[in-house]
Structures are given as structure tokens and as C-alpha cells.
Amino acid sequence: TWECLCGNARIVKMNTVITFGEGLLKAKCIEIKDEGIRVFEMMYDGIFYEILDQLGTMPLPPYIKEKLEDKNRYQTVYAKIEGSAAAPTAGLHFTEEINQKIKDKGIEILDVCLHVGLGTFRPVKEENVLDHHMHSEFYMISEEVADKLNKAKANGQRIIAVGTRTLEANMKKYGKFTATSENTDIFIYPGYKFEAIDCLITNFHLPKSTLLMLISAFASKELIFKAYKEAVKEKYRFFSFGDSMMIL
Fold it and tell me: What does pTM read for this prediction?
């Protein structure tokens, strides 16, 4: 089965069969969920991921209208494991050259894995932020990485996150960095007390997004809005392919 977000959910009814690639892949709707989410049974011959790679296109945020000729342009240089609904866009700023320069300064780069969920494209529409539904996301932290992060904390070293939700969800649940492979639906908004990270690197985000709430929780709404006004004034680039910001 395959769970996906349907752009026009009204026409995707129970038992609807959608055909791709002249029958190479068929998808039958077997469950209807809230918020436009449908569960499909996939029908095919061969290796599923190879068929998806042949027929599919890179899922992009709705504000990117132009088709990418190079699908790897919307991917991090350190991506390894398939499964994410979208690229963790804060990581798009890093190149192999930049990563090497960071290492040359004596900064250790540790890899965690987050499979960005369907909710990454969803704006917050509710008047009461607590009514917003966060979709769960799968993440992994290895034992080696957890040990190194705990030692860094104990030694007073700064942890600079490119993947804040992963680290905060893990710390919030276990009280220390802990090796695990599991889902989280952590929702970080103003009033949240950060326990895992000391700095974060991210993009300039969409209005009314959960990511804008996250950074406002970290640096205060007043400071973030001041920074965004400056960014607009100076014509910074916003969103997925936009400029990077480091919040201390």
C-alpha cells in the first residue's frame, strides 16, 4: 500500500483505479482519510522503486512551477536512504566543498535521517495553533551518533542542527540522545523549550508554516519578524531554493 496526498481529492473516490505508464503501474484507492490523504494498493510487475524512478517526477512544493531537468537539484548531497516525501530543504545549502571546509575547521558532521512527511507542504489554517494536525515523520539516529551527541552535550560543545525536529523529538522523548528508528509528530511552536540544540541552520520559510513557528519558538517571534523584514528589504531569496540563515 502507498499513502499519498491527493491534490484534487474530490475525484479520487474509493476503488478508483489510476493507471500510469500505459499500465506499467496501477493504483487502486482502498482507503479515504482526512485532509485529502488517500491510501492506494499498488499493482505492478517488477521492482516497485525502479518503476517509480522510471515514471515519477520529483515532488516539489506548490510554489515551484517549473519542472526540474535535474532531479538531484532538489536533493541534499548527503542523502542516502529512500523514503522521504520531500527533501529537507535546509540541507540543500550544503555542497561537498562546503562540508569539507566545515570539517577542516575541526567541526564534526554527524548524520541523522528524517523522512520528511506529507505535512511539510501544509500551511497552518486553524485559528488555534493547538488544533493543527502534525503528520508523523520517520527518523533514525544511530548508536554512534547518539553517543557522540551526548558527549558533546556533556562537554559543553554546541550542537548546530540541520534537522531540528529529529534531535528535539529524540531528546524530548528519552531525556538524552538515544539510538532509535521511529515516528514522531512533534510540533514546535512559541513556548516550546528547546533541549537538544544550541543553533540551527534553515531557510526563510513560508508564512503560516509550521517551520516559521519553529524558528519563532527558537529565536522569538519579534526577532524573526525583524530578520524577515530585513530579508525582504534586501531581496533575499525565500523558500526551498532560497537563502540560508543560521540562528544562534
Answer: 0.85
- As a whole number of angstroms, the distance between CA 77 and CA 96 comes to 7
| Start-to-end Cα distance in the chain | 42
Contact 21, 32 (CB under 8 A): no
- Give residues with Cβ within 8 angstroms of 27, minimum separation 6: 2, 17, 18, 20, 40, 41, 42, 43
pLDDT of residue 158: 97
Q: Which three cell numbers stand for residue 143?
A: 548508536
SS3 content of the chain, % helix, strand, coil (to 5): 35, 20, 45
> Which residues of the chain carry a pLDDT beneath 70?
1-11, 118-121
Residue type, 227: A
Angle between helices 164-174 and 210-219 (to 10 degrees): 70
